[in-house]
Amino acid sequence: MTPATPARIRALLVALTAAVAATTASTASATPANVTPACGAASPGFARCLSLVRTDIDGGRGVRGPNAAGTTAALTSLPSGYGPADLDAAYNLPSSGGADQTVAVVDAGDDPKAEADLAVYRQTYGLPPCTTANGCFGKVNQQGQSAPLPADRGWGAEISLDLDMVSAACPDCRILLVEGNDASVANLSKAVDTAVALGATEVSNSYGTAEANGLQSYSASYAHPGVAITVSSGDYGYGVPNWPADLTSVTAVGGTSLSRAANARGWTERAWGNAYGGAGSGCSAWVGKPVWQTDENCPGRMVADVSAVADPLTGPAVYDSYGGYAGWVVIGGTSASAPYIAGVIALAGNPERYADASYFYGSTAGLNDVVGGGNAERVDCGGDYQCNGVTGYDGPTGNGSPNGLAAF
């Protein structure tokens, strides 16, 4: 594929890739101790999940589920972090809909407690059961079979986050967990194709790697007419875009910091960017500018398109008893926003609109314009919209976050 940008721009972005990698390495020891990436760094040909786990708070607060003593506590209060009702209120969403939709989440490796942990989350928040027995939940390998399932790849917390966020957005949707053999680009892409073949109407992908030459050979797996495919924009702020979020056939989902406020909405949002990470944004060197994107300072595909809460400091509650955690935790990252937006698309029931993200560019009246904040903690973009939350379109939050279903 011919690069979409002039050679000098491509060279600059390659340099930024190196800068981001170097900065990530140099700041690893400076990362605050109370936020931990759920997955390790991606090696060439592999992706990493994009979830950030809070480890400094007691997520349980006396809820049902295993406590430190291994017993079950009584339900005395809801967990720390936002639950489905909070997110419904923040994004002006109905609590029902989407019963004819199947949202697939694609992850690496097996989580043997995925269904059981999902049951705890849904019971705690009064959501209808979603189980294998009632036909709501399914788990398959990348070939689409229930056995044999792949080995654990350390993505347990990521899997729980994905399932819980889809549930929060669309409690009536069916959920399909497709587990890749590992986190290789080839196997995750195969898992996406399998999800579509099994009838998924939306497919969420909370993973990625820095865009590079050669990845375009997997593009077809992320382009399925009639199926909405969402991808996390990344957790490392402005720089080289995250693949496959840079593809024009997907909805690239950025991230915000979401807080309650004494205003008409009752909530306020800013572009997410702090010492813990930042919503990924950037100008593609390999993917051309789609006709539906008109931002001025990027000659290629600009990431992101739309957004939702991702800051781990204002993150959702998640129940995970397998991924190295003891139950209730708070998890952020754009691994939270991508499955949530997939669930919102399913809630509205119009996945055929999303052969690309163009619908969001013509429906901005149905989105909260996220103004303020920025993601240039590591690499500055000179105050440009590419790394700052500005009026109208910007890189970290795209066209904004859901305000009801009008934009969906």
Overview of this protein structure:
This protein is α/β, with parallel strands linked by helices and 408 residues long. It contains seven helices and 21 strands. Strands 4, 5, 6, 7, 9, 12, 13 and 17 form an eight-stranded mixed beta sheet that branches. Strands 1-3-19-18 form a four-stranded antiparallel beta sheet. Strands 10, 14, 15 and 16 form a four-stranded mixed beta sheet that branches. Helix 3 (114-124) packs parallel to helix 4 (156-169) and helix 4 (156-169) packs parallel to helix 6. It is globular and about 50 Å long.
CATH class: Alpha Beta
Query: What fraction of the residues are assigned to beta strands by DSSP?
Result: 15-25%
As a percent range, the share of helical residues equals 10-25%
CATH topology: Rossmann fold
**Which stretches of 5+ consecutive residues score pLDDT under 50?**
1-33, 60-75
H and E string: HEEEHEHEHEHEEEEEEEEEEEEEHHEE
Largest pleated sheet = 8 strands, mixed
Task: Report how far apart the termini are.
Answer: 32 Å
- Record field, number of beta strands: 21
Q: Which geometry do the CA atoms define?
A: globular
Structural class: alpha/beta
Mean pLDDT: 88
Summarize the model shown.
Helix 2 crosses helix 4. This protein has 7 helices and 21 strands.
Task: Tell me the layout of helices and strands.
Elements: H1 7-27, E1 35-37, E2 48-49, E3 52-54, H2 84-91, E4 102-108, H3 114-124, E5 137-141, H4 156-169, E6 174-180, H5 185-197, E7 202-205, E8 207-210, E9 228-232, E10 236-238, E11 242-243, E12 251-260, E13 267-271, E14 273-274, E15 277-288, E16 300-303, E17 306-309, E18 317-320, E19 327-332, H6 334-348, H7 358-361, E20 367-368, E21 401-402
Parallel strand pairs: 4-6, 4-7, 5-6, 7-9, 9-12, 10-15, 12-17
Antiparallel strand pairs: 1-3, 2-8, 3-19, 8-11, 12-13, 14-15, 15-16, 18-19, 20-21
Helix pairs in contact: 2-4, 3-4, 4-6
